[in-house]
Amino acid sequence: MVTSEQRRRQLAREKYDRQMQRRAEAQQRARRRNGIIGGSLAVVVIAAGSAWAAGAFDSKAKSSTPQAAPSASAPATPGASTPAAPVAVKGCNPPAAGQPNGKQWKAEPAMTVDTGATYTSTLDTSCGKVTLTLDAGKAPHTVNSFAFLSGEQYFDHVKCHRLTTEGIYVLQCGDPTGSGSGGPGYQFKDENLSGATYPAGTVAMANAGPGTNGSQFFLVYKDTQLPPNYTPFGKITGGLDVLQNIATGGVQGGTGDGAPNANVVLNSVTTVKG
């Protein structure tokens, strides 16, 4: 026979268990809201798999718990299982033949950008062209690095490894390993964070914490709420519809954060002044 004291203790224990469960769920929701776009640089906003729970834009591999968004841990949540083969998505074609060169450098490239000028990047992807206008005045180190890597063909043949379609709305690219943990071997400081917001059309760096920017970046295809932790360095001026089409194709496994169903590969990336 259960005594009243035993019953009281049982009810108290059940109440405690419910509180712990609610707390865990609340923490998980908070991580989903604030983590982003996820190498030595496991990346943001923009960290795939269950990237959403691991931290939005990290560049870290999912084997760890958003360097690059999430260097970039995006909330690709970077240990993750091998993604399934991409499925056919209308508007996407087989990528150009070739492999990422995977070059590495020990230090950030010397500053060569004109901070009084704008720079234009063209991302020729297997799903269509996306053009970016980069702001060297507000994010000189970021634009300098992006232009340098473009000139080294570092981005060519690199797969965009992460897509998020719930809570945050980004496509994350720039990791030559395609794992969410790759980078160029160097890191550089954050820029342009004061008052930073991430409306549709924003281009920003994924990272794994302050000052861990590398090569991973994310493209925002729908207004997204993120803390001002990811360096915005330009705007999408053409091809937003390309990104939205990729997003319509969804994420492998039917989740809201992971490898895109579309086989999105940067066939080539060029950056020029003007």
Set out the fold topology.
Blueprint: H1 4-34, H2 51-54, E1 57-58, E2 73-74, E3 118-125, E4 128-135, H3 140-151, E5 158-159, E6 162-164, E7 170-173, E8 202-205, E9 217-220, E10 232-238, H4 240-248, E11 257-258, E12 265-273
Antiparallel strand pairs: 1-2, 3-4, 3-12, 4-10, 5-12, 6-7, 6-11, 7-9, 8-9, 8-10
Can you give a write-up of this model?
The protein is 20% helix and 20% strand. A hairpin with a 2-residue loop joins strand 3 and strand 4. It has helices at residues 4-34, 51-54, 140-151, 240-248; strands spanning 57-58, 73-74, 118-125, 128-135, 158-159, 162-164, 170-173, 202-205, 217-220, 232-238, 257-258, 265-273. Strands 5-12-3-4-10-8-9-7-6-11 form a ten-stranded antiparallel β-sheet. Strands 1-2 form a two-stranded antiparallel sheet. It contains four helices and twelve strands; from the N terminus they run ααββββαββββββαββ. It folds into two domains: 1-34; 35-273, Cyclophilin, CATH 2.40.100. It is globular and about 80 Å long. The protein is of the alpha+beta class and 274 residues long. It catalyses: [protein]-peptidylproline (omega=180) = [protein]-peptidylproline (omega=0). Residues 128-271 form the PPIase cyclophilin-type domain. It is an enzyme of class 5 (isomerase). Its EC number is 5.2.1.8. This is Peptidyl-prolyl cis-trans isomerase.
